[in-house]
Design goal:
Layout: H1 2-34, H2 56-71, H3 75-80, E1 85-96, H4 100-113, E2 117-125, E3 131-139, H5 144-151, E4 157-167, H6 169-194, H7 201-233, E5 235-244, H8 254-281, H9 285-306
Helix pairs in contact: 6-7
């Protein structure tokens, strides 16, 4: 009897152990698969309690995320906004004065090929034959490297290179919001104007005036928005051409030329001063001659009386 019961008891105990092992392993695995979508949240996504729910540490982490979102509901929207940056790059080029005009024209021609917009050009002819120039253009970021390669090509020598970035995100968002408000106002005024309810002539005139004002404000705001988009979607390039005097055999003889011009100029100034002095003295020569003659005649008469 006992020998018959022992094998049956062993079988029952084995089945119970297997059932308990299955209960301890499968719920956690199923729950982990079910909540795998939370793997990106802070904390350990595989920590579950015996009942298959989140463990206390995991639950506290999730509660922290939820409370943070409730405290700052616009945080995700602000982080998703794309910054609007206006970039300006500057180049100062040094090259012979007699090549400044040709180099600037070549740069502007290449700019036209790349589809950029010329904002400003300037050419100054200074003393001693020196020439300086300036150009400002706007170009798409994808085409900027090709244009920069043309700018820095010989005979130009890059002496300074700068880059400036300005965050225009707030200005862009402000313009978009104002445009949205003005468009809503225009639509309300247009609906009021089309309303079949009888209105007086004065009321209709006031609505039409407000509608025209709203439309004008919308056009101005759209122009501001387009300008902000232009300066944030393109790169501004400022180029300064610093012309230097001609060099002979690697030497700059401009100081000698300046000194020679200074001597000649000094001589001319001295001759001019002499002419001015003579022009001032000549009218007084008769008077001076009469005074000198009178003085000499008086001295001679006094000597004759003493004798």
């Amino acid at each position: 009897m006992i020998r018959a019961i022992l094998p049956a008891a062993l079988v029952v105990l084995t089945l119970a152990a297997c059932g308990r092992e299955s209960y301890l392993t499968h719920p956690a695995a199923d729950t982990s698969e079910h909540y795998s979508e939370f793997a990106g949240l802070p904390g350990d996504a595989t920590r579950f309690g015996p009942s298959g729910l989140f463990a206390p540490a995991r639950r506290e982490s999730l509660d922290h995320v939820v409370l943070a979102q409730l405290a700052n509901p616009r945080q995700s929207q602000q982080s998703a906004r794309v910054s609007q940056i206006a970039i300006t790059r500057g180049f100062t080029l040094r090259l012979p004065s007699n090549e400044v005009t040709a180099v600037q024209q070549r740069h502007l021609a290449e700019c036209a090929k790349l589809g950029c917009t010329v904002l400003e050009t300037r050419l100054d002819r200074l003393n001693e034959g020196r020439i300086s120039a300036r150009a400002s253009v706007r170009i798409e970021p994808s085409r900027y490297p090709a244009f920069a390669a043309v700018i820095t090509a010989p005979p130009a020598e890059v002496t300074t290179q700068s880059e400036r970035a300005e965050d225009m995100t707030v200005a862009v968002l402000d313009v978009d919001k104002r445009l949205e408000v003005k468009i809503a106002l225009r639509d309300r005024l247009a609906a009021m104007l089309k309303d079949p309810v009888a209105k007086g002539a004065a009321e209709l005139a006031a609505i039409e005036k407000e509608l025209a004002q709203a439309q004008g404000d919308i056009e101005v705001t759209i122009a501001q928005r387009d300008y902000l988009r232009t300066i944030t979607e393109t790169v501004r390039v400022d180029i300064t051409y610093d012309g230097r005097p001609g060099v002979v055999a690697g030497y700059d003889f401009s100081p000698i030329k300046r000194a020679a011009n200074g001597i000649i100029q000094t001589l001319i100034t001295s001759v001019a001063s002499l002419i001015v002095a003579l022009a001032a003295v000549v009218p007084w020569l008769p008077v001076i001659g009469f005074v000198v003659w009178g003085a000499l005649w008086g001295l001679r008469r006094r000597r004759a009386q003493r004798v």
